[in-house]
Amino acid sequence: MKDYSIETKCVRAGYTPKQGEPCMIPIVQSTTFKYDSTDDMGQLFALEKEGYFYTRLQNPTNDAVAARITALEGGVAGMLTSSGQAANFYAVFNICEAGDHIVAASTIYGGTFNLFGVTMKKLGIDCTFVNPDDPAEEIAKAFRPNTKVMFAETIANPALVVLDIEKFAKLAHDHKVPLIVDNTFATPVNCRPFEWGADIVTHSTSKYMDGHAMQVGGAIVDSGNFDWNAYGDKYHGLTQPDDSYHGVVYTERFGKAAYITKATVQLMRDLGSIPSPQNCFLLSVGLETLALRMERHCYNADRVAHYLNDHEKVSSVIYAGLEGDKYHELAKKYMPKGTCGVISFELKGGREAAVRFMDSLKLATIATHVADAKTMVLHPASHTHRQLNDQQLKEAGVSPGMIRFSVGIENVEDIIADLEQALTNA
Fold it and tell me: Percentage of the chain surpassing pLDDT 90?
């Protein structure tokens, strides 16, 4: 599928049926797979042979969908997880252990901020958060000798900060670590971070990739570009023998697929955050229309952002598609086809006005979810970022009155009419 456009890959990549086989990716709803001899299965457990033996590690449905997402991102290998949060955890924990350090953008999603800043700290992995807008020389001060990875989001949730991917990639590589980028909001339809120097990409597939709030899932895709062997002692989990697999060295045995193979056969084996084949099938259905929906999301969001920007009750609008937005030029560079359908804005009446506005909406749904076919709205300070203190909220770019408005694919005139009547009551 390498020579096909991304629209075609959304529909076709990852699965090519043979004669008499189903056109849709089949749901292989089975925990186990049968073999004719103990030796055949033994070779699978020893990583000496490819095949399926237990769905916690691999499943044909899951692998086909992972291959489609890998093709969309332009990577060499990918895997699916049971949630986007699990994807971010696996992506980092695959190369970090107690005593290691992470550098992460302070504007990342609240759940990921808590994962790195609180939960992983309990595992002995420290994290320094940096302002992605700071000059490179300032961000560079956060790196330590034990730093193993740098992490950021292409479009931050919900502050909508657009990442300067090339700046972050250079910082990471200058300090001999890979850059992991969460590409959930932009999707590979609008941004392909590998083309700008990122090494690993993660997704919450529950968002635009699914698009219909049908399943919770995550994905990790490896570009295959980071040279783990060049820093063998630093990434010894990949470059030195794994005692739990009879001394296999992942970089020697699996080459560019080493990172994803280790995450699958070691982390998924031990931690088990596998998505169900049924959920992966639902994800595959959503992926087929991803390019179409992203075009509509971006068109609708652009119309809504301009409407809000001109409204007398709105004090500020954050949307990179607006010419006055501070990230407009970065968005044009990295996402020329559009950013996403999510807008953040604030009313002149602050938090109280935001509550009145949200409670007055009739079409838009108050929900934790975002990046869905249906228009949804959320108050980050009260919901997704509730666990952050005032200083952390400020660092994340979340003000007390901020409203996150996820523009769906309904008729845009209906969305604007709903906004109009709700603003009247705000």
Answer: 84
Closest CA to 188 of 10, 377, 322, 389: 10
pTM of the model: 0.95
Q: Are 205 and 214 in contact (CB under 8 A)?
A: no
Q: Cα–Cα distance between 323 and 345 in angstroms, integer?
A: 15
CB 142 within 8 A of CB 127: no
The pair of three-digit structure tokens given for residue 134, joined into one six-digit string: 């700071």
Predicted confidence (pLDDT) per residue in 326-357, tens digit:
999 999 999 999 999 999 999 998 888 988 99
**Nearest-angstrom CA–CA distance, 299 and 13:** 26
Question: Before 275, cis peptide (omega within 30)?
Answer: no
CB burial string 390-403: b at 16+ within 10 A, e below = eebbebbbbbbbbb
CA distance 160 to 42: 49
pLDDT tens per residue across span 120-149: 999 999 999 999 999 999 999 999 999 999
C-alpha 71: how far from its chain's center?
A: 15
Q: How far is CA 252 from CA 79, 132, 198, 258, 259, in A?
A: 20, 35, 23, 8, 11
Positive or negative CA dihedral for 46, 48, 50, 51?
A: negative
